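re: ur question from yesterday

yeah so i grabbed the chain u mentioned. its 264 aa long if i counted rite. heres the sequnce exactly as i have it in my notes:
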Amino acid sequence: MNSWETIKLIRDYQEDNVYILQLNRPESMNALNTKMGTELIECFDYLKQLKDLRVLIFTGSGEKSFCVGGDLKERKGMSHTEWKLQHDIFEDAYKALRELPFPTIAAVNGYALGGGMEMMLSCDLCYLAEHAKMGLPEVKIGIIPGAGGTQLLPRAIPIKIAKEFLYSGKQMSADEARHLGLANGVFSPNSLLEETLKMAKKIAKNAPLSLKALKQSIDRGIQTDINTALSIELEEYYKCANSKDREEGIVAFNEKRVPVWQGI
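ran it thru and got these structure tokens back, copy pasting raw so excuse formatting
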């Protein structure tokens, strides 16, 4: 398996087709530097090749922070050209995260600020530790979110509430995030990963082609008109209906046994 400096890929739960990608710069509260951006791109390319991967959990190391966004210490003194080159890497990394074909779950174990909140928003599901704090504070340092924050947040919560958080740069609590529909659940820090794994394992037991088709149907369809969206749904439906896994699913149901998915 590949080895990276700023991230860890944990395969302890491989038997359940669940992998954990952990941001691993705890000394910097898992801030995103150029090295991490490059390694995330490499890791996402690697993950897309894995035949057994059905669900990816995204979390941070330590107990304080999921990710506090871009590493401002590294950015100090950067020229405009250097800033742009670094941001190109970040853009590619976040695009790759959003385009992963399988379900992704953020297990937010602390602060998720700036690019950290954008990572959270880029995942399909989100579970929070009780002490987690989220926000997009870029306006306070003279920029705006540039990895999806201005587009993903207003698509996830009411637009006026999203604008309030973006204009003020203030943080929201885990309870606020749950109330606004940004989080699927809130747990104690000690049980966050365990509870996230429960849902990941439940999802991973389902047909892998169906999971990928669901993600495509939802993510592509939600951006367009209803008739186009329904056509997208049917396109994905027949990918599953014409598969070996659909045949296996029906046979297993009638034989009252657990299906053996092949992903074909």
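noticed a couple things. Residues 80-98 form the longest helix (19 residues). also The beta strands are 7-10, 18-23, 55-60, 65-67, 104-108, 111-113, 125-129, 133-135, 171-173, 185-187.
anyway ttyl
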